[in-house]
Amino acid sequence: MKTVDLNCDLGESFGPWEMGNDAAMIELATSVNVACGFHAGDADIMRHTVELAKARGVSVGAHPGYRDLHGFGRRPMPGLTSREIENLIAYQIGALQAIATAAGYKVTHVKAHGAISNVACEDDMTAKAIADGIKAVDPNLIFVVLANSKLVKAGEAANLPMVHEVFADRAYEDDGSLVSRKKPGAVLHDPRQIAERVLRMVQDGAVVSVTGKVIKMRTDTVCIHGDTRGAVEIAKGVRQALKDGGIEVAPFKKAN
Protein backbone atom coordinates (compact mmCIF):
# COMPACT_ATOMS: atom_id res chain seq x y z
CA MET A 1 0.00 0.00 0.00
CA LYS A 2 1.26 3.47 -0.85
CA THR A 3 1.91 5.65 2.20
CA VAL A 4 2.37 9.37 2.75
CA ASP A 5 3.13 11.52 5.78
CA LEU A 6 0.88 14.42 6.78
CA ASN A 7 2.82 17.21 8.48
CA CYS A 8 1.64 20.38 10.17
CA ASP A 9 3.38 23.53 11.47
CA LEU A 10 2.37 23.95 15.12
CA GLY A 11 3.46 25.65 18.34
CA GLU A 12 3.05 29.05 16.70
CA SER A 13 1.18 30.68 19.56
CA PHE A 14 3.03 33.16 21.80
CA GLY A 15 2.34 33.68 25.49
CA PRO A 16 -1.44 34.18 25.88
CA TRP A 17 -1.93 34.74 22.14
CA GLU A 18 -3.20 31.61 20.42
CA MET A 19 -2.52 30.64 16.81
CA GLY A 20 -4.47 27.71 15.40
CA ASN A 21 -5.92 24.65 17.11
CA ASP A 22 -2.86 22.55 17.88
CA ALA A 23 -4.70 19.96 19.97
CA ALA A 24 -7.08 19.16 17.11
CA MET A 25 -4.45 19.27 14.37
CA ILE A 26 -2.10 16.94 16.21
CA GLU A 27 -4.81 14.28 16.15
CA LEU A 28 -4.73 14.40 12.34
CA ALA A 29 -1.02 14.81 11.57
CA THR A 30 1.68 12.15 11.62
CA SER A 31 4.52 14.65 12.07
CA VAL A 32 4.62 18.21 13.38
CA ASN A 33 7.07 21.08 12.96
CA VAL A 34 7.38 23.20 16.09
CA ALA A 35 8.18 26.93 16.04
CA CYS A 36 11.35 27.59 18.03
CA GLY A 37 10.83 31.11 19.34
CA PHE A 38 12.21 33.23 16.50
CA HIS A 39 9.16 33.67 14.26
CA ALA A 40 6.65 32.35 16.80
CA GLY A 41 6.39 30.22 19.92
CA ASP A 42 8.15 30.40 23.25
CA ALA A 43 9.58 27.90 25.74
CA ASP A 44 6.21 27.13 27.32
CA ILE A 45 4.42 26.76 24.00
CA MET A 46 7.22 24.54 22.72
CA ARG A 47 7.01 22.29 25.78
CA HIS A 48 3.23 22.02 25.52
CA THR A 49 3.38 21.17 21.82
CA VAL A 50 6.05 18.51 22.36
CA GLU A 51 3.98 16.97 25.14
CA LEU A 52 0.92 16.86 22.88
CA ALA A 53 2.99 15.14 20.19
CA LYS A 54 4.49 12.68 22.65
CA ALA A 55 1.04 11.70 23.94
CA ARG A 56 -0.13 11.14 20.38
CA GLY A 57 3.08 9.39 19.21
CA VAL A 58 3.61 12.02 16.51
CA SER A 59 7.10 12.85 15.23
CA VAL A 60 8.47 16.25 16.29
CA GLY A 61 10.64 18.47 14.14
CA ALA A 62 12.19 21.91 14.54
CA HIS A 63 10.67 24.71 12.45
CA PRO A 64 13.34 27.45 12.45
CA GLY A 65 12.75 30.83 10.82
CA TYR A 66 14.13 34.34 10.68
CA ARG A 67 14.16 36.29 13.96
CA ASP A 68 10.94 38.12 13.06
CA LEU A 69 8.13 37.80 15.58
CA HIS A 70 6.35 40.89 14.31
CA GLY A 71 6.26 39.58 10.74
CA PHE A 72 5.75 35.91 11.67
CA GLY A 73 8.97 35.04 9.86
CA ARG A 74 7.41 35.78 6.50
CA ARG A 75 9.57 38.79 5.62
CA PRO A 76 12.93 38.26 3.86
CA MET A 77 15.98 39.48 5.78
CA PRO A 78 18.68 40.18 3.18
CA GLY A 79 22.24 40.79 4.24
CA LEU A 80 22.69 37.84 6.58
CA THR A 81 25.93 35.92 6.07
CA SER A 82 26.04 32.17 5.64
CA ARG A 83 27.52 31.83 9.14
CA GLU A 84 24.70 33.93 10.63
CA ILE A 85 22.09 31.76 8.91
CA GLU A 86 23.84 28.57 9.99
CA ASN A 87 23.93 29.82 13.57
CA LEU A 88 20.27 30.87 13.71
CA ILE A 89 19.26 27.43 12.40
CA ALA A 90 21.50 25.60 14.89
CA TYR A 91 20.33 27.80 17.76
CA GLN A 92 16.66 27.05 17.16
CA ILE A 93 17.18 23.32 16.68
CA GLY A 94 19.14 23.24 19.93
CA ALA A 95 16.37 25.06 21.78
CA LEU A 96 13.76 22.53 20.70
CA GLN A 97 16.10 19.62 21.42
CA ALA A 98 16.52 20.87 24.99
CA ILE A 99 12.76 21.26 25.46
CA ALA A 100 12.08 17.84 23.92
CA THR A 101 14.69 16.20 26.15
CA ALA A 102 13.08 17.81 29.20
CA ALA A 103 9.75 16.33 28.07
CA GLY A 104 11.29 12.89 27.48
CA TYR A 105 10.98 13.07 23.70
CA LYS A 106 13.25 13.48 20.67
CA VAL A 107 13.52 15.83 17.70
CA THR A 108 13.59 13.80 14.48
CA HIS A 109 13.57 16.35 11.66
CA VAL A 110 13.96 19.98 10.60
CA LYS A 111 11.83 22.06 8.25
CA ALA A 112 12.67 25.70 7.55
CA HIS A 113 9.85 28.21 8.00
CA GLY A 114 8.41 30.99 5.89
CA ALA A 115 10.66 33.52 4.25
CA ILE A 116 13.94 31.78 5.00
CA SER A 117 12.60 28.65 3.32
CA ASN A 118 11.28 30.62 0.34
CA VAL A 119 14.62 32.38 -0.10
CA ALA A 120 16.53 29.10 0.23
CA CYS A 121 14.43 27.47 -2.47
CA GLU A 122 16.00 29.90 -4.94
CA ASP A 123 19.29 30.91 -3.30
CA ASP A 124 22.18 28.45 -3.09
CA MET A 125 23.94 30.23 -0.21
CA THR A 126 20.88 30.26 2.04
CA ALA A 127 20.00 26.67 1.21
CA LYS A 128 23.55 25.50 1.96
CA ALA A 129 23.67 27.46 5.22
CA ILE A 130 20.43 25.85 6.41
CA ALA A 131 21.70 22.37 5.53
CA ASP A 132 25.07 23.08 7.17
CA GLY A 133 23.33 24.31 10.33
CA ILE A 134 21.33 21.08 10.56
CA LYS A 135 24.36 18.89 9.90
CA ALA A 136 26.45 20.73 12.49
CA VAL A 137 23.87 19.90 15.17
CA ASP A 138 23.09 16.33 14.13
CA PRO A 139 23.72 14.79 10.69
CA ASN A 140 21.01 12.21 11.40
CA LEU A 141 18.23 14.78 11.54
CA ILE A 142 15.87 14.43 8.59
CA PHE A 143 15.76 17.51 6.35
CA VAL A 144 12.24 18.28 5.08
CA VAL A 145 12.70 20.01 1.72
CA LEU A 146 10.38 21.58 -0.83
CA ALA A 147 10.39 19.16 -3.75
CA ASN A 148 12.34 20.31 -6.84
CA SER A 149 13.94 23.27 -5.00
CA LYS A 150 17.54 24.22 -4.20
CA LEU A 151 17.00 22.85 -0.72
CA VAL A 152 17.16 19.39 -2.30
CA LYS A 153 20.59 20.07 -3.80
CA ALA A 154 21.85 21.50 -0.49
CA GLY A 155 20.58 18.50 1.45
CA GLU A 156 22.24 16.11 -0.96
CA ALA A 157 25.56 17.99 -0.73
CA ALA A 158 25.42 17.83 3.08
CA ASN A 159 24.53 14.12 2.90
CA LEU A 160 21.47 14.65 5.08
CA PRO A 161 18.55 12.21 5.06
CA MET A 162 15.69 13.99 3.31
CA VAL A 163 11.97 13.83 2.70
CA HIS A 164 10.36 15.82 -0.10
CA GLU A 165 7.36 17.98 0.72
CA VAL A 166 4.34 19.26 -1.18
CA PHE A 167 1.74 21.69 0.14
CA ALA A 168 -1.95 20.89 0.38
CA ASP A 169 -3.13 24.46 0.84
CA ARG A 170 -0.74 26.48 -1.32
CA ALA A 171 -0.85 27.25 -5.05
CA TYR A 172 2.15 26.54 -7.30
CA GLU A 173 3.78 28.59 -10.05
CA ASP A 174 4.78 26.99 -13.36
CA ASP A 175 8.39 26.63 -12.16
CA GLY A 176 7.33 24.56 -9.15
CA SER A 177 7.73 27.36 -6.61
CA LEU A 178 4.96 28.42 -4.25
CA VAL A 179 2.80 31.36 -5.30
CA SER A 180 3.68 34.37 -3.15
CA ARG A 181 1.28 35.02 -0.30
CA LYS A 182 1.06 38.58 -1.62
CA LYS A 183 -0.86 37.29 -4.65
CA PRO A 184 -4.58 36.40 -4.61
CA GLY A 185 -5.25 32.68 -4.55
CA ALA A 186 -1.88 31.79 -3.01
CA VAL A 187 -3.54 30.06 -0.06
CA LEU A 188 -6.38 27.60 -0.70
CA HIS A 189 -9.33 27.24 1.68
CA ASP A 190 -11.95 24.91 0.12
CA PRO A 191 -11.64 21.57 2.03
CA ARG A 192 -13.14 19.50 -0.81
CA GLN A 193 -10.94 21.08 -3.47
CA ILE A 194 -7.84 20.62 -1.33
CA ALA A 195 -8.65 16.99 -0.50
CA GLU A 196 -9.12 16.10 -4.18
CA ARG A 197 -5.94 17.97 -5.07
CA VAL A 198 -3.84 16.15 -2.45
CA LEU A 199 -5.12 12.76 -3.54
CA ARG A 200 -4.04 13.52 -7.12
CA MET A 201 -0.68 14.81 -5.91
CA VAL A 202 0.08 11.59 -4.04
CA GLN A 203 -1.32 9.25 -6.70
CA ASP A 204 0.41 11.00 -9.61
CA GLY A 205 3.58 12.25 -7.87
CA ALA A 206 2.88 15.66 -9.35
CA VAL A 207 1.31 19.05 -8.65
CA VAL A 208 -0.76 21.20 -10.99
CA SER A 209 0.28 24.85 -11.30
CA VAL A 210 -2.02 27.87 -11.41
CA THR A 211 -1.98 27.69 -15.23
CA GLY A 212 -2.68 23.95 -15.31
CA LYS A 213 0.88 22.78 -15.91
CA VAL A 214 1.62 19.33 -14.47
CA ILE A 215 4.92 19.32 -12.55
CA LYS A 216 6.40 16.01 -11.46
CA MET A 217 7.38 16.07 -7.78
CA ARG A 218 8.46 13.47 -5.29
CA THR A 219 5.78 13.39 -2.60
CA ASP A 220 6.94 11.98 0.75
CA THR A 221 5.00 14.33 2.99
CA VAL A 222 2.08 16.73 2.57
CA CYS A 223 1.91 19.94 4.61
CA ILE A 224 -1.24 21.55 5.95
CA HIS A 225 -0.55 24.87 7.66
CA GLY A 226 -1.97 25.00 11.19
CA ASP A 227 -2.68 28.73 10.81
CA THR A 228 -4.72 28.38 7.60
CA ARG A 229 -8.38 29.26 8.08
CA GLY A 230 -10.34 26.01 8.47
CA ALA A 231 -7.16 23.94 8.95
CA VAL A 232 -8.85 21.23 11.02
CA GLU A 233 -11.59 20.64 8.44
CA ILE A 234 -9.01 20.68 5.67
CA ALA A 235 -6.90 18.06 7.45
CA LYS A 236 -9.93 15.86 8.09
CA GLY A 237 -10.90 16.06 4.43
CA VAL A 238 -7.39 15.23 3.26
CA ARG A 239 -7.11 12.20 5.54
CA GLN A 240 -10.50 10.88 4.40
CA ALA A 241 -9.67 11.40 0.72
CA LEU A 242 -6.38 9.56 1.10
CA LYS A 243 -8.08 6.71 2.95
CA ASP A 244 -10.78 6.45 0.30
CA GLY A 245 -8.03 6.42 -2.33
CA GLY A 246 -6.30 3.46 -0.69
CA ILE A 247 -3.36 5.50 0.60
CA GLU A 248 -2.14 5.06 4.17
CA VAL A 249 -1.22 8.13 6.20
CA ALA A 250 1.91 7.24 8.18
CA PRO A 251 5.07 8.94 9.48
CA PHE A 252 7.77 9.42 6.87
CA LYS A 253 10.77 7.14 6.93
CA LYS A 254 14.38 8.22 6.90
CA ALA A 255 15.61 8.47 3.32
CA ASN A 256 18.54 6.34 2.22
Structure summary:
By secondary structure, the protein is of the alpha/beta class.
Could you tell me how far the N terminus lies from the C terminus, measured between alpha carbons in angstroms? Answer: 20 Å
Number of helices: 8
* Widest sheet, order of strands: 1-2-3-4-5-6-9
Q: Which second-level CATH architecture applies?
A: Alpha-Beta Barrel
Mean pLDDT, as a whole number?
Answer: 94
Task: Tell me the structural class.
Answer: alpha/beta
Shape: globular
The profile of the biggest β sheet is: 7 strands, parallel, barrel
Structure description:
The protein has a single domain, classed as TIM Barrel (Alpha-Beta Barrel). Helices cover about 40% and strands about 20% of the residues. The longest helix is centred in the middle third of the chain and has 21 residues, at about 80-100. It has a 7-stranded parallel β-barrel, surrounded by 5 helices. The protein has a two-stranded antiparallel ribbon with strand order 7-8. The protein is of the alpha/beta class and about 260 residues long. Helix 3 runs parallel beside helix 5 and helix 5 crosses helix 6 (about 150-155). It has 8 helices and 10 strands.
